[in-house]
Sequence to fold (172 residues):
Amino acid sequence: MDALGIDLPRLIFQMVNFLILLFLLQRLLFKPILRLMDQRATKIRESVDEAERMRKMAEELRAANAAALEAAKKEANDLINAATHAANQITEKAREDARAEAERIMARMRDEIRLERDRAIADVRHQAVDLAILAAGKVLEQSLTGPQHYQIVRDFLEKAGQGESGSMVSPN
Fold:
C-alpha cells in the first residue's frame, strides 16, 4: 500500500482515533443531545396536546355560553311577555273598574234626580194644596183648620188625579 501512498500504521492509528472519538462523541455528546431532543419533542407534544385540550375546552365553553345566552334571551322574552300580559290585565281591570264606577255614579245621579223630582212634585203639590185651601177658604168664607183643609184638598186631588201615579204627601 506504500505504492498508493497509504501508510498502514498511520491509517490504523487514525481509524482507532476516529473510533475513540466516535465512541466519546456517542457517549458524551450524541446521547445527551438526543435525550434533550427527545425531551424537547415530548414537551412540544405535551404543549400541542395541551393546546388542543384548551381549544376543545374553549369550544365547549363557547357552546355553553351560547346556550346560556339563548336561555337568557328566552327567559328575558318570557319575562317581557309576562310583564306585557300583566300590564294588559291591569289596564283592562282599570277600565272595567272605571266603567263600573261610572255606572255607579250614573245610577246614584239617576236616584238623586228621581228624588229631587219627587221632592219638587211633592213641593208643588203642597203649594197646590195650600193654594187650594186658601182659595177654598175664601170661596166658602169659612175658617177651616189645617187638617180639615188638607182632607178637603186630598179628596179633591184624589178625584181629579185618579189617573196620575205618584205618592201623596202627608201633612207635616
